[in-house]
Amino acid sequence: MSKKTLIVIGNGMVGHHFLEQFAASEAASSFDIIVFGEEKQLAYDRVHLSEYFTGSTHADLAMGTADWYAEQGINLRLNEQVTGIDRENRTVTTPKGDYHYDELVLATGSYPFVPPIEGKEHPACFVYRTLEDLDAIRASAQDGKTGVVVGGGLLGLEAANALKSLGLNAHVVEFAPRLMPVQLDDDGGAVLRSKIEELGVQVHTEKATTAIVEGDEARLRMNFSDDSHLETDLIVFSAGIRPQDTLARQSGLDVGERGGIVIDNQCTTSDPHIHAIGECALWNQRIFGLVAPGYTMARTLSAALNGDSDAAFTGADMSTKLKLLGVDVGSIGDAHGQTPGARNIRYNDEQAGHYRRMVVSSDGKKLLGAILVGDNSYYDTLLQYALNGIDLPENAESLILPESQGGAPALGPDALPETASICSCHNVTKGDICCAIDAGCSDLGSVKGETKASTGCGGCAALLKNVVDNELEKRGVEVSKDICEHFPYSRQELFHLVKVNGIRSFRSLIRQHGKGYGCDICKPAVGSILATCWNDHILASDHVPLQDTNDTFMANMQKNGTYSIVPRVPGGEITPDKLIVLGQVAKEYDLYTKITGGQRIDLFGATLTELPEIWEKLIAAGFETGHAYGKSLRTVKSCVGSTWCRYGVQDSVGMAIHLENRYKGLRAPHKIKLAVSGCTRECAEAQSKDIGVIATDKGWNLYVCGNGGMRPRHADLFATDLNDEELIRAIDRVLMFYVRTADRLQRTSVWMENLEGGLDYLKQVVLEDSLGIGEELEQHMEDIVGTYQCEWKTAVEDPEKRKRFREFVNAPEKKDPVQEWTTERDQRRPVLESA
Amino acid sequence: MKARTRWDAVCSVADLVPDSGIAVWTEDGPVAVFYLPDRLPALFAISHTDPFSGSNVLARGITGDLKGEPVVASPLYKQHFSLRSGQCLEDETVQVKVYPVLLDDDQIRLEIPVAQAAVAA
Ligand code: SRM
Ligand SMILES: Cc1cc2nc3c(=O)[nH]c(=O)nc-3n(C[C@H](O)[C@H](O)[C@H](O)COP(=O)(O)OP(=O)(O)OC[C@H]3O[C@@H](n4cnc5c(N)ncnc54)[C@H](O)[C@@H]3O)c2cc1C
Ligand code: SF4
Ligand code: FES
C-alpha cells in the first residue's frame, strides 16, 4: 500500500513537538512526512531566546537534531518558505516546487506586531522573535548607547533586559498606564515599575509614539503625542504578537476577526484535511501566546490523527511565572478578579517591593487567581490551589503572608490529588509520576526521562523534585544526594544531561536543569564535565568563572597568593638542555626550585603577572603544561627499565612516556596518576597509583585503583601479560568509565570501593564488554586524545586570555605589598605571619 | 563627622570578567570587583584581602549564590563571603570591607574613603 503524505508548515517549538509525538505514534508508519521551515535553523527554544545574548548558541537552544529527523525518515526542508496552498489539488507551493499532501498541519506561529508609526522602517528599528532578529540587534547595539523597547508587556521587559545586557541604557515605552497590563493590576504594576527603575531601566507609561525621526544626539528621536520626546540609538518593537495566518487567508480557510486560524477541539480547521496548532491557531475565539497550550494542541492533534476519538483540546491555563530583570512576577488564572462575586486579599510591602493578591470565590472556598510581584516562592502552592480546586484553608490570607507573620508553609506534595498537574508543558500529573516510580524509576533523572516532566519550560522543576522525593521516601527509597543546592542531581546524572542534550555551557545547564547562579561546588564539577565532554579550552570565556583559581590561572596558588609552575616531564625523562632552561628561567624570576614526588620540577613564587611571561619562555624551549593544577592526569612515573637496568624486562620509560602523552589533558572527577615499572621489583611504585603497569617477560600486568595520599590503597591486579595494544585499550576503557561514572572529587580508589559489583564488575565491563560500551569508551578517549591542546600555549598566544593575568588591572606596575620575601638555604621563600 | 569619600574610577567595563572578579588598586588598598551579569545589581566590590590568610586573592575566587545570597568563595581556604555585606558565612565574627560601586558611562567607580591630607590638598 502506498503511503500518504503529511506536510507540516513551520518548524518552530510546537511544530517540532508535534513531530516528536506523531513520529512515535502508530500512524507514523502510514505517512511520508515533509516539514517546511522558513528560518534557516532547526526548531529552537524560543522561550529561552534571550540566552542567545548571554552565551547560548543555536546548538544550546535547539529542540532536536538533524540526525533525529533523518532517523525518523522525516524530510526536513529548512530555509524554504511555503508561499501558497492549493486546497483543491491538495498541494503546497514553495519557491522550489509543488508538493502534494493528504494531511496538512499549519504550525506557523506568530509575528511581532509593529504599530503603524511614521519612521518605523528605519534600519535601527527591530523586533524580537528570531535568532536573526537578535543578531541584528546585537550588531546595531555595538556602537549605540541607548535602546528603547516599545511595549511594557512580558516580552518587552525581557527585551529591555537584553538591551541592558548588551550594555545599553534601556528604556521602556508603554502605551497603557502600567507595566504588564495583561497580567498585573495597578498596584502590582506600580511595584514592578519601581523595582525595575531601581535597576536602571527607565519606564515611560501612557506614551503614544507619533513619529520616529533622525535624532540630534543619538541616531533616532521618538516623538510622543504629549509633545515630549526621547532620543535613542535603536528601537525594539514588542507591542504584541499577531497569528501568522497569511496562508490560511489566501486559501480561504476560516480565520478570526482579529486573525488566527479557526480550529475545533481536534485542532482541525474549516478544511477537514488541514489542521492548525500553536500560536497561529484560534480556539474558541482565543489565541494562546504560550508554549504549553501549543504543546497540548500538538498532542491532541497527534492523537486525533491516530484515530483517538476522545482527543480534544479544551483550553489551557495561561498562568505564568517569570523573572523579569531579576524581579519575580507571577500571574495565575483570573488575576483581575473578573469572576462575578470574586473577592480579593492583598498583601503589599512597598518597602521591600513585594505585592501579592489572591482572587477568591464569593464563598471564600476556592482560589480563582493570583498576582505576585517580588517573590515567586508562593507561586507553586497558589497554582496548585487554583488548578486543582483544592479547598482553601480557613485563614486563606496565610498563603500570601511572609512566614514571619504567620504565613502558611507550602502545600506539601501529599496534599495534592492524583490528578494534580505537575508539569503543564508535558501534561504530567502526580499520578503519572507515581506510575513511573512504581514501574521502576528510582530517581529524579529517570522520572524525567520516563515522563518528560520538567523538560519544557523548566518552571515545574522544584515541584517535581518535591513530589518525586516525597514518593520515593514513602516507598522507603533513600533519596540520592544532590551535588549542591543548585542542582537536584548527582555528578553522574549531570554528566548524562550534558552529554545527551549536547549542553555546552554552565549557563544553559543551570537554566534548564538547576536553579540560582551556582557555587564553588557545582561550577568546577560542571566545568570538568564540560571539558570531558567537549574538550574546549578551559580559558574559553564561558568556562573561566567555573574553575577553581588553580584551573583559571593554570597554576597552583600558594599561601601568599603567588603561584607554582610545573611543566610536564613525561615519564620523568628530561634532556640536559631542558634542565638548563628550567634553571635559567627559575633564576631570572627568582623562583624557589624543588624536585617533586612525581618526578618533575616545581618552580614556586611566580606572581600572576609573571605566569604568562614565564610560560612563553618554557614553551619556546619545548615544555608543555603539567596540569599540576587540574583534576586531570598528573604524572606517569617510571623506573629506568630495560634500557639501562640489569633486571629490566620491558622499556618502562618508553611506555610511561607513551601513556603520559596519551592521557595528558584528560579532565576527570579527580586527579589521576600512573606509573610504569620495568620489572617486578617495582621501583616506580605502580601499585600505589590509579593505574599501575608492571612489566613481565611476556608483556605487562595492569593494576587499577591504587592510591597514596591520605588513605593509601593497594591497586588491584586487573589483567596479566597484555601486549602494548591490549594494555592501552584496557586503560582507555577503565579511565573513561571512571570519568563518566565517578562522583565529583572521587579518586579511582574510592570509586572502586563504591562500585556495585566491585573489581569483578569492572573486569566484565572492560575486558568482556558486558555493557556493550567498550568501543564507545575507546572512541570517546580517542576524541579527547585527538583534540589535546597545551592550555598554556593557547593562553599565551591569545591577548584576550592574557589580560586575565593582571594582578591589578589599573596598576600594572604595582607589586602586591603582602608578598614579602626572605632567603633560606640560598633560595627565596615567603614571609607571612600565619593568620 | 562623617569620613570624606570620593568616587574613583578604577577600571572600564572591558576589564571586567563576567561571573568572576578582577582586582584593582585603590587608595584604600586592593579591592576585588565582581561582575555577575545575570543578577541585578550586577556589580559588587569588596576588599581583595582574604582575612584568613592575609593574602590578596579574593577576586580570584568562584562566585555564586548560597540560599540566594551572592557570594565569593576564597580560593585559599574556601570560606564564603557575602558580596553584599562582606560577611563571612562560616564565621560570624569575620567580615570584609564592602565598597559602593557604580557604572558611570563605561567606567567602574568605587566610593573610597579619602585620607584627610588628600582632602585638604
Ligand atoms: C609538589 C608535590 C610535593 C612535592 O614537592 O613533591 C605535591 C604538592 C601538592 N599536593 Fe600532592 N604533591 C606531590 C605529590 C604527591 C604524591 C606522590 C606521587 O604522586 O607519587 C601523593 C600521593 C600519591 C597519590 O596521589 O595517590 C600526593 C598526594 C596528595 C593529596 C592526597 C590525595 C589523596 O588521594 O589522598 C593531595 C590533596 C588532594 O588532592 O585533594 C595533594 C595535594 C597537593 C597540593 C596540590 C595541595 C594544594 O592544593 O596546594 C600541593 C600543591 C603543590 C603545588 O603548588 O605545586 N597531594 N601528592 C608533589 C607533586 C608531584 C607532581 O610532580 O605532580
Ligand atoms: C523572547 C520570547 C520569550 C518567550 N517567553 C515565553 C515564556 O516564558 N513562556 C511561554 O510559554 N512562551 C514564551 N514565548 C512564546 C513561545 O516562544 C511561543 O508560544 C512558541 O514559540 C510558539 O510556538 P509555535 O511553534 O506556535 O511558533 P514558532 O515557534 O514561532 O514557530 C513557527 C515557525 O513557523 C515558521 N513559518 C511561518 N510561516 C511559514 C511558512 N509560510 N513557511 C515555512 N515556515 C513558516 C516560522 O518561521 C517559525 O519558525 C516567548 C517568545 C519569545 C519571542
Ligand atoms: S604533603 Fe601536604 S604540605 Fe606536603 S605538598 Fe602535599 S599537601 Fe602540601
Ligand atoms: S511546566 Fe514547563 S517543563 Fe514542566
Automatic annotation (TrEMBL), chain A:
The UniProt regions of compositional bias labelled Basic and acidic residues, in chain numbering, are 812-835
EC number from the UniProt entry: 1.7.1.15
Q: Which segments constitute the NADH-rubredoxin oxidoreductase C-terminal domain?
A: 319-383
Identify the enzyme class. Answer: oxidoreductase
Q: Which domain of life is it from?
A: Bacteria
Record's keyword terms, sorted? 2Fe-2S, 4Fe-4S, FAD, Flavoprotein, Heme, Iron, Iron-sulfur, Metal-binding, Nitrate assimilation, Oxidoreductase
Give this protein's Gene Ontology molecular function annotations.
Answer: 2 iron, 2 sulfur cluster binding; 4 iron, 4 sulfur cluster binding; flavin adenine dinucleotide binding; heme binding; metal ion binding; NADP binding; nitrite reductase (NADH) activity
UniProt-listed Gene3D superfamilies: 3.30.390.30, BFD-like [2Fe-2S]-binding domain, FAD/NAD(P)-binding domain, Sulfite Reductase Hemoprotein, domain 1
- Transmembrane spans: none
Q: In which pathway does it act?
A: Nitrogen metabolism; nitrate reduction (assimilation)
Q: Does the record carry Heme as a key word?
A: yes
Q: What is the name attached to this protein's record?
A: Nitrite reductase large subunit
TrEMBL record, chain B:
Q: Which GO terms describe its molecular function?
A: 2 iron, 2 sulfur cluster binding; nitrite reductase [NAD(P)H] activity
Q: Which CDD domains match?
A: Rieske_NirD
**UniProt keyword terms in alphabetical order:** Nitrate assimilation, Oxidoreductase
Q: Does the keyword Oxidoreductase apply?
A: yes
State if Transmembrane helix is listed as a keyword. Answer: no
Q: Which parts of the sequence belong to the Rieske-like [2Fe-2S] domain?
A: 7-110
Q: Name one GO biological process term.
A: nitrate assimilation
Pfam families the UniProt entry points to: Rieske_2 (PF13806)
Write down what this protein is called.
Nitrite reductase small subunit NirD
Query: Species name for this entry?
Result: Marinobacter salinexigens
